[in-house]
Amino acid sequence: MENNQTVERIRQTGRLGFGTAPLGNLYRAVPEDEALGAVEAAWQHGIRHFDTAPHYGLGLAERRLGEVLAGKPPGDYLLSSKVGRLLRPNPSPQGMDPEGFDVPDDLTRIYDYSRDGVLRSIEESLERLGTDRLDVVYIHDPDDHWEEAISGAVPALSGLRDEGVIGAYGAGMNQSAMLERFVREADLDLVMLAGRYTLLEQTGARSLITACRERGVGIVNVGVFNSGILSADRPAPDAMYNYAPAPSSVREQATALADLAEKHGTTLPAAALAFPYREPAVAAVVLGMSTAGHVERNTHLRGAVIPEQFWQDAAALDTVN
């Protein structure tokens, strides 16, 4: 909860986190030196909060991240990974991973939110990462597995936290409704909310935020650029939103925000990154990065000062429900 030392560490030193899905070759193959260089650049820019998952590149992201962090003092950074997908040999490989990562499909994902599955997943993540401890463990995308997650993963992770094996635990999803249910029915420390609390879209997350405030649960906000539509100064005609081509109505709303940002002497991506930090329940924002250039750009955006009048004017615009 709010007095959990791991959550306080995030608030104090890890408010901008490094997300490793791109290191797992999400949508494109990232050369090894480029991937490792991105992690090293993040360290040089003062980033000490790193998030990963077995899902990302069928373990590739964990291995790459672990290779760089092996040379860093363990107590100097905060590391999170996820449970819910076990990686097992693929009995019928077809060539490449069908879930968007540019890696061979010699492994396959087995959904498992049971106690035994959680323990195996953590053990295997630690091996890929080359470490002996995770600061945070998230239950990853349990959308269709509520019963197993609440009866298996939650008590398993709660016990590991209470024993000091992990620092904290939570759940990470692309929806807010089930995260709110976790907040109200489990004793978790954090939620990782993807894409539902952004400059463009807030309505669906309001009830979750209220619950987090009431229960003292921290929010790690991800997907603040809504799959890319908020990542450029002006939305492109082929901009993506929520992992799909953006509807024209969403592009129009993003363009209105871009116009407003320009009027107030700032940019759409700078405002998009700054927005979630205005909510006290948000402990950190994690951004996916795959190059040193991404790191430099995002740390620069993090330092931007957004005029207060921008927020007042933006609040008057319609947002996506």
Describe this structure in words.
With 321 residues, the protein is of the alpha/beta class. The chain has one domain (5-315): NADP-dependent oxidoreductase domain (TIM Barrel). The protein has eleven helices and twelve strands. The chain has helices at 5-13, 32-44, 60-69, 115-129, 146-162, 177-185, 206-215, 248-263, 268-274, 292-302, 308-315, and strands at 16-19, 49-51, 78-83, 85-89, 107-111, 134-140, 166-173, 190-194, 218-222, 240-241, 244-245, 282-288. The strands form three sheets. It has an eight-stranded parallel beta barrel with strand order 1-2-3-6-7-8-9-12, surrounded by six helices. α6 (177-185) runs parallel beside α7.
CATH architecture: Alpha-Beta Barrel
Number of domains: 1
Largest β-sheet summary? 8 strands, parallel, barrel
Chain oligomer state:
single chain
Helix content: 25-40%
In round numbers, the mean pLDDT is: 95
β-strand number: 12
Principal-axis shape: globular
For the largest beta sheet, what order do the strands appear in spatially?
1-2-3-6-7-8-9-12
CATH topology: TIM Barrel
Strand content bin: 15-25%
Structural class: alpha/beta
Uncertain parts: none
Radius of gyration: 19 Å
Relevant CATH superfamily: NADP-dependent oxidoreductase domain
